[in-house]
Every structure is written in C-alpha cells, then in structure tokens.
C-alpha cells in the first residue's frame, strides 16, 4: 500500500511567505507603482530582491517533495516572536501589499507637513549653487534650491517660469492664490517632503481643485503673502495636465 506523504507545514508557510513577498515587489515593478514608493536609484534593489525571493520560494517548495522533509532546526536563530507568529505577520503584510494600490502623496499630506512655508522645508543645504539652468527650464525643486541659496525674491522678478505640479489650496490664502507643489524623494516615500511656489490667479482657484495637476507658465514677481515677502508666479497660462508617471522630484 502506497504511503501518503504528510505535508511539512512550516516549510509550506516558508514557501508561501517567500513567494508572496517576491511577487509583491515584482507586482509594484510591473504595475509601475514602484516609482511611488522608491527613488529610481533603488529600483534595481527592489526588483532584484523580488526575483531572489521568488527563486528562494521555488527552491523551498522543491524541498517539500524530497523524501526527507526539511528540518525546523536548520538555520535556527533567536527571534522576538515565535516562528508561527512571525510567519503569519509576514504573510499578512505580503497579502496586504498584493491587494493595496499605493498612491502618491497629495495636498492633505503637504498641508500637514507645512507646505505654506516651502523654502524652509527644503532639506538640502548647499553651500554653493551654480545657476546654470535657464529660469524657464527650472523645475520646482530647482527653484526652491535656488531660493535656498539666494533667498531675495526681487532677484528673480520678471524671470520666466514653467513648472508642473499638483494643486494645493492653503486655507489662510485668498481665493485667487494657490500653490503648485511636488513631493521630493531622497530615498523612499517615508522621507518625502513637499516643496511648492505660490501662484496668483486672475480668477478663483476653485477652477483648479486640490490634487489636480497643472502646468504653469508665466513670470516671477514679489508679493507680500500671509505677512511675508514671497516669490509668486504671475501666470500667463495655467493648463490642467495628467498626473505624470513619476509624480516626485529628486
């Protein structure tokens, strides 16, 4: 009579955890959502980890069919949680990651982090800055970095500006002002911080809802906004545009 093999459940859970974590990372890559979570310089690490975890999961799965089941004591180590609990936590996170669709940060997160004072939020503190990029080609983060080094707004009056970002309605500003903003990523979404520039509209900002994406072309001017002298965009054209594939700046 043929003997029915008993499943070795610890190895089954190991296999599932490795495969699900690998598939979760690869899913973010395939769906293009990895850019929402990580700086592009680190994408290869996440993609490589995904393939390695899938390979390890397949290898672990093959051991289930060997005549001698894998030993639970192999590779034993000290852990804070019992092995079963750790595996359940890993599996739950992997399943959540496979279901959840990450979204980029939006205006509510920017307001919570104090976007109304954008220059003070810039984390880079350059000692020297060569303004080689023409004003019309500067991105939002280029403008903020430039202001960090040369903070006098009058130095940029009448300079052309052409930037793209999402819309924020700072509650303390009048209804003809909005902010065009981007989040800056240095490593991953956990360290993202917002930067932005005020835009003075000729009409009401309600035409551009919060979190919608706009392209603003115009000139720089100096105004007193919220009790501070600020560099403000006087737009010649404001267009609604689709959210870019990568919504962050670096």
Automatic annotation (TrEMBL):
Any idea which UniProt keywords this protein has? Membrane, Transmembrane, Transmembrane helix
Check the UniProt entry and state the signal peptide residues, or none.
none
Q: Name one Pfam family in it.
A: DUF1980_C
Regions that span the bilayer: 7-30, 42-59, 80-101
Annotated DUF1980 domain ranges read: 148-248
The keyword Kinase is assigned to this record: no
* InterPro entries according to UniProt: DUF1980, DUF1980_C, UPF0703_membrane_permease
Instruction: From the Swiss-Prot or TrEMBL record, give the protein name.
Output: TIGR03943 family protein
Organism field = Leptolyngbya iicbica LK
